[in-house]
Amino acid sequence: MEADPSPLFHKKKKHTQFFQHLKTLVLLLITAPLMAPQYAPSLRALLPPLACLLEMLLILLFTFCIQYEETEVKNHSFTYIYAELQDVNVMVFLGFGFLCAFLTRYSFSSMGFNLLVASLAVQWALLMNGLLFSTSNGKISISMRSLSEAQMFAVSGLISMGAVLGKTNPIHLLLLALIEVTGFIVNTWILWSFLMVQTVDSIMLLHIFGASFGATTSWVLQREGLQPRHSKEKLHHKTGLFSMMGVLFLWMFWPSFNSALIDHTLHAKKLNAIGNTYLSLAGSAVSAFVFSALTSPKGKINMVHTQSSILAGGVAMGVAVSARCMPWVAITIGILAGLISTLGFRYLKPYLQVNFGCHDTCGVLNVHGLPGTLGWLAYLLLQVSQSADPTASLRFAVYHVCILLITLGLSMGLGAITGFLLKWPIWRPPQDRKCFDDQAFWEFPHLAVHK
Predict the structure, then answer these.
(1) For the chain, which domains are there?
(2) First to last CA, the chain
(3) Pick from 50, 83, 108, 390: CA 20 to 30 A from residue 233's CA?
(4) What is the 3-state secondary structure (H, E, C) of 139-178?
(5) Considering only CA atoms, which of 182, 187, 197, 340 is closest in space to residue 261?
(6) Residues 132-159, buried b or exposed e (16+ Cβ, 10 A)?
(7) Are strands 135-136 and 66-68 parallel, antiparallel or unpaired?
(8) Residues of the chain with pLDDT under 50
(9) What is the DSSP string of 347-361?
(10) Phi, psi (degrees; rounded to nearest 5) at 135
(11) pLDDT for the residue 184
């Protein structure tokens, strides 16, 4: 029979176990900050205080600085604009909300954050726009037109939001929208003050400004952990139907969007804007289906192309809304817009992701950036072709190029600054594995594990 181990052996074994536990504890303390936690960081200590602080600030400013415009109320002119205001409202909250709901595991966040960001951005845009354009006797006057303009300024923020959707949290999106809307209103003021650009033309540059701002921000926010295409960045047939419904809302109400800022007394100009937008949208819809099938290796139609590229005609015609053109020209612009948008989704978007790290979630460069630039070019060609004076045409061309360069320079510069600001860890960005996932931000009682 074997003898029992000596007490000295037991003592040595205890010491060895103690040092092993101590070593394990030290390793955990060192590596814990480097290990991804099981759950996404809570935003309870940041999002509610930030949102409440912003709303309290807006309430104070609205209390002492804002009043309703009496002239518009007396002559009842607001009744002509209200219907168009509601059309734009549908686009902002229903159209863009459903449009971004195509991601399989991020549809809650796409629609919910769109509502949150748009609600705050409209209030902020109303204040900033009035501060620069509608101040009299120390008060900012609110009219139906200023409400329409505020909605359009908010749309520019929603466009930028589409480029970083899924890789950010609500705090990032709120900050991005506030900075972008402020920058775009300043851009509108610069163009109006120094280049005498009409308000309609400067505001319709929102597509170019929002797309370049969002793409630059997304490029700066790119981090090593995120692959060119995330594993959860997928399209599902159910979420795809929701997204298609948003496209239909946008497609139907886009003529109101492009003509909302044109005075109701200018009947010919308003009819020209509505008719050309409708025809351009029809052309881009046909073009998106045709070129999606032509560029597919198997000759099949891509749902992403039809969901996004059919809107390219409205974008292009919006930037060129002040140009007088024949109906066939509007259809041609729509066909070309659908073509470059489809080619952008097929070739440009993956190229930018792989080679430059510019991850554009919703493809805002292809839906708004490229068609918006096409609309800018179409406006230039139409104006030059209608002028009989070569000197005047050259001056207008230089003038028009300056407008584009100022818009691109300011949007890309502010986008880069915003990207560096949002990279601060204090905003608690989602971990790489929690990107494009609703469960990082929303309660799902049916998925809870009960122990």
Answers:
(1) 80-425 (1.10.3430.10)
(2) 48
(3) 50
(4) EEEECHHHHHHHHHHHHHHHHHHHHHCCCCCHHHHHHHHH
(5) 197
(6) ebbeeeeebbbbbbbbbbbbbbbbbbbb
(7) unpaired
(8) 1-4, 8-13, 25-37, 449-451
(9) IIHHHHHHHH----T
(10) -95, 130
(11) 97
